[in-house]
Amino acid sequence: MHQKFLPYLCCPETKEPLELVAEEIEPNGFVNKGFLRTPSGREYVIVRGIPRFVSSENYVGSFGFEWKRWPRVQFESENVGRPMEGHTTKMWEIITGNKTQDFGRQTLVEFGCGSGRFLDVVLRKNGIAIGIDMSMAVEAARKNFENNPDVLIVQGDILKHPFRSDSFDGGYTIGVLHHTPMPESGLAALVNTVKHGGWVACAVYHKRGFYAYPSVARFRKFNNWIKPYFGYSLAVLYSYFSAYFLTPIFRLLRKSWLRQVAHFLEKRWLPCLYIPDVHWRVLDMFDGITPAIASTHTRAEVIIWMEGAGCRDLTFPNWGDTAITGIKD
């Protein structure tokens, strides 16, 4: 972490300010090793440039595995001239409602940053990017941004975050809150970190979408049952099988009189994705069939969350029914 980010941080338990004790620091002010200390004596270590506010991945281990295995598949730089070129930027701009090309050094926070593909969008738009994730995906994010002084990666629990209230110009969480035990509390926590008048964006799984398919739920339950014995090896195997073998077959079936059979198999037994890039298909299938928690929601639910957290002027981006933006009162 860079020293300049210290004013944004606080103890997640007591909300006390933190003192930075740097043990290994780069010439540009980036702290690779050290710890953060509260006046009352609590300490949080900084390891490999990442402040650590949790001691384990808890229920998000699949994401640590996922983003360490596929750390840059969805980054724009990896997709130039490929089928998904521009997708990450387009997705972020639509969901957040921000198409500006220059944030003028505004500071934006992401709850559930993974390996950092959306943080990369913020950086390219001249913003300062702060991301928090409970999983070991933070290691991939750290590597992706090296010692960039305009990026802060934090390992922490978004339900008990280490950020001061009213700190950021904007905040967003995309495809994350439904992987927590309390999505509504996660959104309230995000809103708490944003300045009054700042923007907030949220996108979660919809009850009628792919992630609510019985086939996906069945695979998720099976993978979590066998994980203690096989890790994620069988989930990886199925992800490649589905992406490289099932998708081409089901595409053909969808164009024939057997399209209803294909739809039945996809929905009930063999989940399949039709993303144009095979590498994205592998990643997104693994993402769907491995999480320990993956709830689905309605637009009405997310509206209640947003309004309950103190957001007004809600808008509904054209990216599924459960993406909503608002302004913090």
How would you describe this structure to a colleague?
With 329 residues, this protein is an alpha/beta fold. It has 2 domains: 186 residues, Vaccinia Virus protein VP39 (Rossmann fold, 3-Layer(aba) Sandwich); 80 residues, no CATH class. 36% of the residues lie in helices and 20% in strands. The chain is built from 10 helices and 11 strands. Strands 7-6-5-8-9-11-10 form a 7-stranded mixed sheet, with helices on both faces. The chain has a 4-stranded antiparallel sheet with strand order 1-2-3-4. α5 packs across α10, α7 packs antiparallel against α8 and α7 packs across α9. The longest helix is centred in the C-terminal third of the chain and has 22 residues. It is globular, with a radius of gyration of 20 Å. The chain starts with 18 loop residues before the first strand and ends with a strand. The mean pLDDT is 97.
Topology:
Elements: E1 19-25, E2 31-37, E3 43-47, E4 50-51, H1 61-69, H2 87-96, E5 107-111, H3 117-124, E6 128-133, H4 137-145, E7 151-155, E8 168-174, H5 183-193, E9 194-203, H6 214-230, H7 233-254, H8 259-268, H9 278-289, H10 299-308, E10 311-315, E11 323-328
Helix pairs in contact: 1-4, 5-10, 7-8, 7-9
